[in-house]
Specification:
Number of domains: 1
Number of helices: 5
Distance between the termini: 45 Å
Strand content: 5-15%
Order of helices and strands: HHHHHEE
Helix content: 40-55%
Largest sheet: 2 strands, antiparallel
Shape: elongated
Strand order of the largest sheet: 1-2
CATH superfamily: lambda repressor-like DNA-binding domains
Length: about 100
């Protein structure tokens, strides 16, 4: 979910729109739109389709960007445990090289 909401936020910013304007064009309240953008409530397919139209893109392009965002979050120097259903990252770790350290 985080990837798609990040992709939507990017497109809103790229078009110089406010969330209030987008919510109004989408036909939902500002608070409802905010809950959806914050991942508390999922967007319906019809809402995603309408959002894509408002933002001058396609749902497929939004989904591709969402995948890119999710993959950017996964570092090649570590690992990530991610919930497949929601896309939420449960644990993310990376390797850090330490100079010195505590003496035993």
């Amino acid at each position: 979910m985080k990837g798609i909401t990040s992709a939507i936020r990017e497109q809103i910013a790229a078009h110089g729109l406010s969330t209030v304007i987008v919510a109004k064009r989408l036909g939902i309240g500002r608070q409802t739109f905010s809950r959806k953008l914050n991942g508390h409530v999922e967007f319906s397919l019809s809402e995603l389709t309408r959002l894509a139209e408002i933002l001058g893109t396609t749902v497929a392009d939004l989904m591709c960007r969402a995948d890119q965002i999710a993959n950017e979050a996964i570092s090649s120097d570590g690992f990530t445990i991610q919930d497949k259903a929601s896309g939420s990252i449960i644990l993310q770790a990376r390797r850090v090289d330490w100079e010195g350290g505590d003496a035993a």
